[in-house]
Design a protein that fits this description.
The chain is of the alpha+beta class. The chain contains two helices and five strands. It has a five-stranded antiparallel sheet with strand order 1-5-4-3-2.
């Protein structure tokens, strides 16, 4: 198992940051798990990788995002980088999301 983490800031409110992290996971072809009773935690993944975002409101216009990714197949770093880029609204050249595997 491998583990990679990172952090970045988004210029948005907490709801916007949550939508962006969900978008990043979905665009990467990962299943998304969010709790209805929290705005600050988003998880996703498949049978080989788990992605967890923790969102912290810094002020009215900025959110700090911490991301932790674990995998059983050595892909945690690549998945972290891809999902982070997608969640920040960056296009990834040549990237086409794979179908979501059935869990």
């Amino acid at each position: 198992m491998d583990l990679h983490w990172g952090a970045y800031d988004l210029s948005t409110d907490l709801g916007g940051a949550r939508r962006l992290t969900v978008h990043g996971l979905e665009t990467a072809g990962l299943e998304v798990w969010v709790a209805d009773d929290t705005e600050y935690f988003v998880s996703g993944g498949n049978d080989a990788v788990a992605v967890n975002f923790t969102l912290t409101q810094l002020n009215d216009d900025d959110v700090h995002v911490a991301i932790v990714v674990t995998s059983t197949n050595g892909t945690a770093e690549a998945v972290r980088n891809l999902v982070r880029e997608l969640a920040q609204g960056h296009a990834v050249p040549g990237y086409a999301p794979p179908p979501i595997p059935h869990l």
